[in-house]
Specification:
- By secondary structure, the chain is α+β, with helices and mostly antiparallel strands.
- The protein has a single domain, classed as Gcn5-related N-acetyltransferase (GNAT) (Aminopeptidase).
- The protein is 32% helix and 31% strand.
- The chain has six helices and eight strands; from the N terminus they run E-E-H-H-H-E-E-E-H-E-H-E-E-H.
- It has helices at 18-25, 31-34, 42-51, 105-120, 135-144, 173-182; strands at 3-4, 8-11, 58-63, 69-76, 89-96, 125-131, 147-157, 162-172.
- An eight-stranded mixed beta sheet has the order 1-2-3-4-5-6-8-7, sandwiched between helices.
- Helix 4 packs across helix 5.
- It is globular, with a radius of gyration of 16 Å.
- 34% of the residues are buried.
């Protein structure tokens, strides 16, 4: 499935995206703050595309102008998230290549994925988290209308071999419907 916004195409990843994913995922400012190490090779990025960015609701974030992957956004469904064990709830995750930061790209993609979650696939709640210090991710959630829920002081971050402080917020279908009425 492909989703579109004013500026973006959100589409399934393809093997041919590996070079572009590596271009952005190798940056030490991108992955570690989100809980994963910088990619070391195009082959590693290909493996991540095939094994991590391969979920039913995982999308490459692409500008309409060239349809090249510049980041990722995903609704992690039940069985692939530790934030919920309900079939009508999911977790939202995202990352974006550094050259594209500060342009409102991820908030635009998030709003389309919220629409898709609530209107197309029947979700009642979308959870989203970020690690302490990831101000950009926190701002995306605030800008998009997520409501803070709780902080956990000792979250295991296995890919980084660290324990971090995690913050969780959510967005409900009722909040989405109320937002649509005022637009």
């Amino acid at each position: 499935m492909k989703l579109e916004t004013e500026r973006l195409i959100l589409r399934p990843f393809e093997d041919s995206d590996a070079e572009n994913v590596y271009l952005y995922a190798k940056d030490p400012d991108v992955g570690p703050i989100a809980g994963w190490p910088p990619h070391k090779s195009i082959d590693e990025s290909l493996e991540v595309i095939r094994n991590v960015l391969s979920g039913a609701e995982a999308y490459a974030v692409c500008m309409k102008s060239d349809n090249k992957a510049i980041g990722a956004i995903e609704l992690k469904l039940n069985g692939y998230t530790d934030m919920t064990d309900r079939d009508n709830e999911c977790e939202l995750g995202y990352w974006l290549g550094k050259p594209f930061w500060g342009q409102g790209i991820i908030p635009e993609a998030v709003m389309e994925l919220l629409r898709h979650a609530f209107e197309d696939i029947g979700m009642s709640k979308v959870w989203c988290g970020y690690y302490d210090g990831n101000v950009k991710s926190r701002r995306v959630q605030e800008k998009c209308g997520f409501t803070y829920q709780w902080t956990t002081p000792d979250v295991d971050v296995p890919l980084m071999n660290e324990i971090r402080i995690g913050h969780v917020s959510c967005f409900t279908k009722e909040e989405w419907e109320a937002l649509q009425k005022i637009r």
